[in-house]
Amino acid sequence: MKKTIAICFTNNKGGSGKSTVCANLGYELSKAGRRVLLIDGDMQMNLTLSYFDEERVLEMAESKRTIYEAVTEKKSIRDHIVHTPYDGLDMVPSSTLLSQIEFQLFTMMQREYVLKKCISDVKASGEYDYILIDAPPTLGNWVVNILCASDQVIMPVEASPWGLFGLANMFDFLDSLKEITDTRLRGVLITKVDERKNYYRQTREVLESYDDIPVFDTVIHVDSSIEWAEDSSVPVAVYKKSTRSAVEFQKLSKEIIRG
């Protein structure tokens, strides 16, 4: 049976494009014939909103089919999975109640591994090739949970003056967790690239100056189609298949599949 790979998307700086990358990579992996489960671990619910309109998101929150209920009740995520409109692509939605998750985890035994246990049966079943987890822009116990539940980390970094701010802290944070998790940095993904500015070149130079920090060959350029797609709650390739970012997310999925 093929092993399920759990990948989390994390960066302690907001605005790096974590949810956008997670949503569109998940779609492209499913289009490539892989079975994908998305888990929205951010109280802002951007990943959930990438596939469902606001009315549907509120319905799911009220039905308690969210990651918050699974974690706080220490139950399998299986009963919290919903189907997206696309074949081979499912989701565990988020909830605004995740704003309380740090307090909830503080009262639990082995709190670093609650999410890992919640996804363990689904992961062990091999029914998905990939589980993609969108993390919030924090470094709290909930993000520790997400990292402990993941095999790999993708770190989106914005090509902007502030895009690299706090990156060393993020690397130190990952390094500090080596004793409790085997997760590894799959790669840093440079996002929001604008070729008219020098920030992309500067960002790549800084990243390549680190030892043993892998950087994806693929980059994601600034593309207004991404915003229009998110406004329509569809992947960018569904909104406009030929747009630059749609092609880039497809390239990124090929990098991931190659391993």
Integer tally of domains? 1
Helix content: 40-55%
Q: Within the largest sheet, what's the order of strands?
A: 3-4-2-5-1-6-7
Mean pLDDT over the residues: 93
Strand content range: 5-15%
How many strand units?
7
Helix-and-strand structural type:
alpha/beta
CATH topology: Rossmann fold
CATH architecture: 3-Layer(aba) Sandwich
3D shape: globular
Low-confidence stretches: none
Number of helices: 12
Q: Write the H/E string, N to C.
A: EHEHHHEEHHEHEHEHHHH
Top CATH class = Alpha Beta
Radius of gyration: 17 Å
CATH superfamily: P-loop containing nucleotide triphosphate hydrolases
What does this protein look like?
The chain has 259 residues and is α/β, with parallel strands linked by helices. Helix 1 crosses helix 12. The protein has one domain: P-loop containing nucleotide triphosphate hydrolases (Rossmann fold, 3-Layer(aba) Sandwich), CATH 3.40.50.300. It is built from twelve helices and seven strands. It has helices at 18-31, 46-49, 54-62, 67-72, 101-106, 114-125, 141-148, 167-176, 199-208, 224-231, 236-239, 244-258, and strands at 5-9, 36-40, 82-83, 89-92, 130-134, 152-158, 184-191. Helix 8 (167-176) links the parallel strand 6 and strand 7 (184-191).
